[in-house]
Amino acid sequence: MSPTISQAFPDGVVSIRACLESLAEPDYKAFNAKLVPTIDPATMIGIRVPQLRALAKRLRRGDSRILDEFLADLPHRWFEESMLHAILIGDVYPSIEQTIAALSRFLPYADNWAVTDTIRVPRLSDDDARVWLDQLARWIRDDHAYTVRYAVVALMTDFLGDRFDAEQLRLVGGIRSDDYYVNMARAWYFATALAKQWDDALPLLEQRSLDPWTHNKTIQKACESYRIPAARKTLLRSLRIPQRSQRA
Predict the structure, then answer these.
(1) Which end of the chain has less Cβ packing within 10 Å, N or C?
(2) What Å distances lie between residue 235 and 196, 202, 206, 232, 242, CA to CA?
(3) Pfam families given for it (predicted)?
């Protein structure tokens, strides 16, 4: 059984890395390595996310110098260091501009879906939302696959509700990528859009505006959703592109 956070990071201990290494669970490492297959298992310690969140909470209450040094130390050695960084980054900066600057330093080192999908920014004011949307549009055009994935997931999280605009659908639809994790994020985004913004999202499928793989994966994920009524799922299934057409 791994130690508790208070045991692993007692008062006076200044090494976050040593704390993380003391929390290692070999069995969980083997399990987690299967979930994030793009990562070399040798770079994993094996720490559950609730443990990382508990450590992040403790760090936010502690010596800011330790926290600042950790966030500046890029690239990280361990996968779990990057996960801890991802948890912290949305909580420690007082303005959206500082958060964007911190993310701009961090995202080029992101190399897996688990890290990018863990990042969340705080609740946005209307002014912050405009700044944030402009930045996401820039990241969506980035050459780095996981920066693009992060931007798509953030757009889904932050802008498919009251701040939705149909132009955002076209922004994600305009991405051209062969990367599996980018296109999975796009399918996830469009499936969520079908659940929340059906009238605006459906025409993209009816007009076959997406590449065939993302088109069909969107339909699959939407049909797996409990938020979409059965009648709409029947319509979506009728819009699938035959496999032979996907290869054309």
Answers:
(1) N
(2) 16, 10, 10, 5, 15
(3) DNA_alkylation
Distance CA 131, CA 51 (A): 32
Q: Render pLDDT for 4-49 as a digit per residue (tens, 0 to 9).
A: 555 555 554 458 999 999 999 999 999 999 999 999 999 999 999 9
On whether both 115 and 131 belong to a single domain, the answer is: no
> Residue 129, Cβ neighbours under 10 Å: how many?
16
Exposure of 67 by Cβ count < 10 A (0-12 exposed, 13-18 middle, 19+ buried)?
Answer: middle
- What are the Cα distances from residue 154, in Å, to 22, 78, 133, 224, 230? 32, 24, 9, 21, 28
The pTM (predicted TM-score) of the whole model is: 0.90
| Residues 13 and 64 grouped into a single domain | yes
3-state secondary structure of 39: coil
Residues 116 and 138 in one domain: no
CATH number, domain containing residue 206: 1.25.40
Same domain, residue pair 89 and 179: no
Domain of residue 107, residue span: 1-122
Q: What distance in Å separates the CA atoms of residue 118 and residue 101, rounded to the nearest whole number? A: 18
Token pair for 94: 């007082």
| 232 and 202 within one domain | yes
Q: Which of 180, 181, 202 is nearest to 191 (CA)?
A: 202
Distance (Å, whole) CA 13 – CA 33: 29
- Are 117 and 16 found together in one domain? yes
Phi, psi of 91 (to 5 degrees): -115, -15
